[in-house]
């Protein structure tokens, strides 16, 4: 199974409504299961939060600049996509391990400060994923850290993460097809 990917040069914000079916097709021209990546601010108001725990707490997400990974996956179930999300987060964490990056569920932390936000949800036709990595966390409602403070080039990190995630994703199909059934 192929994963279509695109890293955009254009900067634009992530506000929450982008997490919808066929956004990657209609806005970025990506067909099928895909991962679109761009840079820009993040401003998700409570009304656009997908996580019920966050909505009930009237939480919001804000960051001056993030890397936004937006995925849409067809033929997957929610549980599988949460595992896929954890894989993507783990790849980012491994790339930043030299900074003491740790993962707690789908969140990344460095020096006790939050580096990422992430969510997975289901639509009637697909599974959707957003992972935001702080570049400049100014305005964040929690203690946060960004790649800028760490001296990490976000473009280089993005390319490495997309390449590794794509390789893992595309190997899933063969891993499922190559085994001899046991009867």
Short description:
With 183 residues, this protein is of the alpha+beta class.
User: What distance lies between the first and last C-alpha atoms, to the nearest angstrom?
Assistant: 26 Å
**Radius of gyration in whole Å, from Cα?**
16 Å
The CATH topology comes to: BirA Bifunctional Protein, domain 2
Helical stretch tally: 5
Low-confidence stretches: none
Structural class: alpha+beta
Helix share of residues? 25-40%
Which terms summarize this structure?
five-stranded mixed sheet; 5 helices; 183 residues; alpha+beta
Describe this structure in words.
With 183 residues, this protein is an alpha+beta fold. The protein has one domain: Bira Bifunctional Protein, Domain 2 (BirA Bifunctional Protein, domain 2), CATH 3.30.930.10. It has five helices and eight strands; from the N terminus they run βαβαβαβββββαα. The strands form two sheets. It has a five-stranded mixed sheet with strand order 1-2-3-8-7. α3 crosses α5 (154-177). It starts with a strand and ends in a 6-residue tail after the last helix. The model has no long low-confidence stretch (mean pLDDT 95).
């Amino acid at each position: 199974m192929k994963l279509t990917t695109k890293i955009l040069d254009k900067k634009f914000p992530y506000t929450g409504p982008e997490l919808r079916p066929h956004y990657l097709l209609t806005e970025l021209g990506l067909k099928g299961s895909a991962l679109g990546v761009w840079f820009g601010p993040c401003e998700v108001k409570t009304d656009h939060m997908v996580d019920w725990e966050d909505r009930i707490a009237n939480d919001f997400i804000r960051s001056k600049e993030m890397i936004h990974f937006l995925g849409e996956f067809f033929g997957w179930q929610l549980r599988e996509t949460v595992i896929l999300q954890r894989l993507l987060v783990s790849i980012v964490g491994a790339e930043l391990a030299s900074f003491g990056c740790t993962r707690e569920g789908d969140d990344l932390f460095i020096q006790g400060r939050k580096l990422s936000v992430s969510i997975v949800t289901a639509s009637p036709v697909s599974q959707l994923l957003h992972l935001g990595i702080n570049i400049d966390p100014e305005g964040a409602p929690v203690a946060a850290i960004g790649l800028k403070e760490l001296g990490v080039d976000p473009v280089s990190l993005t390319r490495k993460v997309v390449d590794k995630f794509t390789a893992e994703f595309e190997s899933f199909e063969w891993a499922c097809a190559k085994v001899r059934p046991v009867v």
